[in-house]
Amino acid sequence: xxxxxxxxxxxxxxxxxxxxxxxxxxxxxxxxxxxxxxxxxxxxxxxxxxxxxxxxxxxxxxxxxxxxxxxxxxxxxxxxxxxxxxxxxxxxxxxxxxxxxxxxxxxxxxxxxxxxxxxxxxxxxxxxxxxxxxxxxxxxxxxxxxxxxxxxxxxxxxxxxxxxxxxxxxxxxxxxxxxxxxxxxxxxxxxxxxxxxxxxxxxxxxxxxxxxxxxxxxxxxxxxxxxxxxxxxxxxxxxxxxxxxxxxxxxxxxxxxxxxxxxxxxxxxxxxxxxxxxxxxxxxxxxxxxxxxxxxxxxxxxxxxxxxxxxxxxxxxxxxxxxxxxxxxxxxxxxxxxxxxxxxxxxxxxxxxxxxxxxxxxxxxxxxxxxxxxxxxxxxxxxxxxxxxxxxxxxxxxxxxxxxxxxxxxxxxxxxxxxxxxxxx
Length: 425
Fold this sequence. Notes:
- There is one protein chain.
- This protein has 425 residues and is an alpha+beta fold.
- The chain has helices at residues 2-18, 133-165, 172-188, 193-221, 226-248, 272-294, 296-306, 308-313, 318-343, 351-366, 371-387, 398-412, and strands at 36-41, 43-44, 47-48, 53-58, 61-66, 72-77, 82-87, 106-109, 115-117, 263-265, 268-270.
- The strands form four sheets. It has a four-stranded antiparallel β-sheet, with no helix packed on it.
């Protein structure tokens, strides 16, 4: 870690010397000047609309953009917040008009991401209706289930690590980020998408292996207490996060196929990415449950989590089990990061940090150290987060509600939903 910090300090002056200072916000800012963007696509009956002017105004800033040949447009803004978008209907091609009921101008708000997108509907005879309360409730339930299951992928790995080692690993969020960044990096150099996915999963597993082999195992052998190890994990998280920032940059990037059109399943409208994410998460979690309950390594893992000393006396190689847990936890975290990048959508250097509190909330709510408790707690957190917007809570505060629920559960049931009651003192 000292060598890593030294290298960063050595390169920092050169990077600073070759980078011009950030310009002050102005209405004539270029599209690449700021890291936060408002974007979208303009299409009419499947055909892109080019040359259409869109203006964004808010927070003391005003900027505009013109849609490109493929209908894409993007406006870079200096800060996150709410902006009023106005589509100049005089620039639309002849015979094309906004669908009846389309809101223009409209207000868009950033929500835990540096990119916010919006869709304008076009076409004669098309009417945009306000969604009913029941329809909105069903949509939020499906979105919450999808979010909860992808949250559970990372939470299960964190719970396994805590159960077998007792370590609260604050660097778990960086394993989430690493998977998404590797997938984007491999895709950007022309690698097939399936190969990029495999590379992202293997990177998470490798990161987990390296952490345990070169950091946590030596600390365990020295008898380091859990609190110092937790502080080390915080330092590791900060170091890994800013190394990613150094090489990846601070902009939000999109994975292949991130922009999709919602499909209607009866009263529910869901994006294909969320639907695929829900199915993948459910299958993987079911597989993890089967491995824990039916295989020898799964039973050994549960034995180590229950009592490491007794497991070692029974002939179980505790170090080998812990190593498998770290590799599995890293792989699950990387998979969760890839799905999270499609759910947001977008890849950023700190996306793992943004979801880490939700992971801890799911693990704590379900019961520390219990794998199935992490699953239940994550699903509850995911559904609650999405349902709060139905009942009037702004999207910027919906993640706070999950933490409030966690605090209330800890006040009245400290062991969590599926945790076991233990004597303290």
